Each structure stands twice: as structure tokens, then as C-alpha cells.
Amino acid sequence: MSYVWIFISSLLAGIAASMGVGGGAVLLLYLTAFAGMNQLAAQGINLIFFLPIAVVAVCIHAKNKLINYKSAFICIPFGLAGVWGGLWLTRIISENLLSKLFALLLLYMGVRELLAKKEKN
């Protein structure tokens, strides 16, 4: 792994994460497609990477009064349930299938974004 590419991908992931547009996807793509890391190891690094990024982003969003705490606290239990569901799934499906599902999700999100109608302000 080249430190230059690690720096660039981490910087891009941090920028994307601060905007709430999937910084984890950027980092996972780099780690799996370009750094040759297996999917589960890349996910572990991504989770560690996300912790300090999330703290900074939450502080900035809170300072700018951009957080709807009521909605956030409603979402948290379902997010936690999703984590347990995801952990369960990673134990029963192969890493190869997991990588393919991740690729399909990214493809779907990209196509959806390209075809989305732009809202008028």
C-alpha cells in the first residue's frame, strides 16, 4: 500500500463523510479494489476510521444546529438492530458474495443518483 494513495483516499473519504455522502464507500473501494485488502478487513478499518470522523462531523453539525435530535434518537435503535443484522449476515454469507453485494449497492446508488431529477430551490 502506497502511503500517498492511503493519504488521498483517506482525505477523500473524510471530505465525503463530512458531507454525509458515503465516505466509507470511498475508503472501502480503495482498500478492496486498489490496495488488495479483503472485504472484512477493509470493513474493520473503515469502522475504526469512521469513529473520529463522525465525532468531528457531529460536533460541527451540532454547532450549526443541523441535527434533528428527535429523529436521530428514533433512528438509533433501528441502526443498532441493523448492525446486529449485518454482523449476522457476514457470518453466513461468503466474503466473495459480500463483495459482490457491496458492488451492486454502489452501482444502484450511482445509477439512482445519475437518473434522479434535480429539485428546484
Automatic annotation (TrEMBL):
It is a multi-pass membrane protein. GO terms for cellular component: plasma membrane. The keyword NADP does not apply. The chain crosses the membrane at residues 12-34, 40-60, 72-91, 97-115. The keyword Thylakoid does not apply. Its main location: membrane. Keywords: Cell membrane, Membrane, Transmembrane, Transmembrane helix. It is found in: Cell membrane; Membrane. It holds the Pfam family TauE. Belongs to the 4-toluene sulfonate uptake permease (TSUP) (TC 2.A.102) family. This is Probable membrane transporter protein.
